[in-house]
């Protein structure tokens, strides 16, 4: 017999669903609107951090085709955003990908989809903290006018200790609930976007004035992905580009906390993705025209700059104090995203705990802040352990983890896109809306992501497609990306033995849409 759900806002947060009614997990409702949802999504994407971490990887693969690769990465993300929107309009649930793929495909696919999301977020959290540490010491070096201080960011012991301190602070803030996160993000996101736009405009002005190292002329062919690229180069570059858009789905994990759960998350997600694309294209064109893609000096292809492009370009473009402002913007970007990135992982873990896919302890809700505090704490601890181990194994942690992250993102976004098609399969052709938004967009987006996933897994086995680090001759990227998915299979089998109800479909059964009416959130 199915047990009754606990009352709303119950501190235990471990109710059992009845039929098609989503579990009330005790989160604070009615807190997030369209703009604030988009802001939280942009903060999670962290354009400042993402650009400085990914430009080197993308340029190394595709050179001057970086704008084309950003557009190519945007397309499957944009198409998949509609899958998220349609699924959320039917079932607003903080478990998002996990919940929807379980309802569509059953517990095993759903669990692996949720695992991919959780692991991807832990990888991102480690990256965010690492970038924050680098720019923390760059700022101190700039203020003190002592360049040697910046080297502390690359000292493994100092780097690990400082990173763990940042992770601890971000974990504590995230445990205090959505309202604290939302208020902080308006200021932090606004600051980083203003500085990034100022940097791009000043770089373009210097190019026009003939005061740039490369001074390249604008070429529309930079935006064409169909010329001058091999399949393997395209796939590696696209992995970096897909990573660059990761995080917009934070908007969808906040559905239960939105003012209009069925419409607000989808609108916020689409607004977030479009805003990020425009920012990336402006900055990409500006840095290419200013610095070029050469392997020497300030060139974007210089391996010495690959993990921290803005660290090399800030002072030449903006001067000492302007460069300091850019350093501060990247630090703010990292810290802001570090804090908001805890939102989706904690809420996915909350959902998995609520439905019995994870131990019930992670579904506990803080009685005062109405947030999944224990899940956030677990995510922080696991991230700290992951970052420490990978930093010890790899000389260029960011390059390896970003490449691995692209694999993980393609995995769970792709499953979610196909889940939309399958979940709504009985009504795909009942209206033009359903044909476009529940079939074509999700199917094409999912197909693109799965193809990139398969190619990227193959490429990741070659150590040369990462930092060069390998175990038994196989690239470390493969172990971080695909290897952690395999680890998930064993974790799933263990949890099935300990918590069989979820895997028998008792707590979150496969189902069909609650309504055949098309969504009205366009």
Walk me through what this model shows.
The chain is mainly alpha-helical and 522 residues long. It has one domain (39-503): Amino acid/polyamine transporter I (Up-down Bundle), CATH 1.20.1740. The chain is 66% helix and 1% strand. The chain contains 17 helices and two strands. The chain has helices at residues 34-45, 47-62, 66-90, 97-105, 107-144, 156-174, 178-208, 231-245, 250-253, 264-291, 309-340, 342-354, 373-393, 397-423, 432-460, 476-498, 500-503; strands spanning 470-471, 474-475. The chain has a two-stranded antiparallel ribbon with strand order 1-2. Strand 1 and strand 2 form a beta hairpin. Helix 1 crosses helix 11 and helix 5 (107-144) crosses helix 13. It is globular. It starts with 33 loop residues before the first helix and ends in a 19-residue tail after the last helix. Mean pLDDT is 81; it is low at 1-21 and 516-522.
Q: How are the secondary structure elements laid out?
A:
Elements: H1 34-45, H2 47-62, H3 66-90, H4 97-105, H5 107-144, H6 156-174, H7 178-208, H8 231-245, H9 250-253, H10 264-291, H11 309-340, H12 342-354, H13 373-393, H14 397-423, H15 432-460, E1 470-471, E2 474-475, H16 476-498, H17 500-503
Antiparallel strand pairs: 1-2
């Amino acid at each position: 017999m199915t047990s009754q759900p606990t009352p709303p806002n119950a501190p235990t947060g471990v109710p059992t669903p009845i039929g098609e009614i989503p579990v009330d997990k005790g989160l604070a409702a009615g807190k997030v609107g369209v703009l604030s949802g988009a802001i939280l999504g942009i903060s999670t994407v962290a354009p400042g951090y993402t650009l400085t971490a990914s430009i080197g990887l993308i340029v190394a693969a595709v050179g001057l085709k970086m704008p084309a690769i950003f557009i190519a990465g945007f397309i499957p993300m944009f198409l998949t955003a509609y899958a998220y929107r349609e699924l959320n309009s039917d079932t607003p649930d903080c478990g998002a990908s996990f919940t929807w793929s379980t309802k569509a495909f059953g517990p095993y696919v759903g669990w692996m989809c949720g695992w991919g999301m959780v692991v991807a977020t832990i990888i991102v959290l480690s990256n965010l903290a690492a970038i924050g540490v680098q720019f923390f010491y760059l700022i101190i070096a700039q203020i003190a006018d002592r360049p040697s201080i910046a080297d502390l960011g690359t000292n493994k012991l100092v780097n690990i200790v400082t990173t763990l301190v940042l992770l601890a602070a971000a974990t504590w803030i995230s445990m205090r609930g959505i309202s604290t996160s939302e208020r902080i993000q308006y200021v932090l996101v606004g600051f980083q976007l203003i500085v990034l736009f100022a940097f791009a405009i000043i770089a373009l002005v210097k190019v026009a004035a003939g005061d740039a190292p490369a001074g390249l002329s604008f070429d529309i062919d930079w935006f064409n992905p169909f010329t001058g690229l091999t399949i393997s180069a395209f796939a590696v570059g696209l992995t970096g580009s897909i990573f660059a858009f990761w995080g917009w789905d934070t908007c969808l994990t906040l559905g239960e906390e939105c003012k209009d759960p069925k419409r607000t998350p989808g609108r916020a997600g689409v607004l977030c993705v479009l805003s990020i694309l425009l920012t990336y294209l402006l900055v990409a064109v500006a840095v290419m025209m200013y610095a070029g893609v050469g392997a020497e000096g300030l060139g974007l292809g210089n391996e010495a700059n690959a993990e921290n492009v803005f660290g090399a370009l800030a002072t030449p473009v903006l001067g000492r104090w302007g460069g300091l402002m850019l350093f501060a913007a990247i630090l703010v970007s990292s810290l802001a995203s570090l804090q908001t990135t805890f939102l989706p992982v904690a809420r996915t873990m909350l959902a998995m705990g609520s439905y019995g896919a994870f131990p019930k302890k992670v579904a506990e809700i803080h009685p005062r802040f109405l947030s999944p505090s224990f899940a956030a704490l677990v995510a922080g601890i696991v991230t700290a352990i992951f970052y420490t181990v990978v930093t010890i194994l790899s000389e260029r942690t960011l390059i390896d983890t970003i490449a691995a992250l692209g694999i993980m993102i393609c995995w769970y976004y792709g499953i979610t896109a196909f889940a939309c098609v399958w979940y709504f399969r009985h009504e795909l052709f009942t209206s033009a809306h359903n044909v476009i938004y529940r079939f074509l967009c999700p199917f094409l987006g999912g197909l693109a992501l799965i193809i990139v996933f398969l190619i990227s897994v193959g490429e990741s086995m070659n150590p040369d497609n990462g930092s060069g680090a390998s175990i038994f001759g196989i690239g470390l990227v493969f172990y971080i990306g695909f290897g952690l998915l395999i680890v998930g299979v064993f974790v799933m089998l263990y949890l099935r033995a300990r918590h069989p109800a979820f895997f028998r479909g008792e707590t979150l059964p496969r189902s069909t849409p609650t309504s055949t009416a098309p969504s009205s959130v366009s």
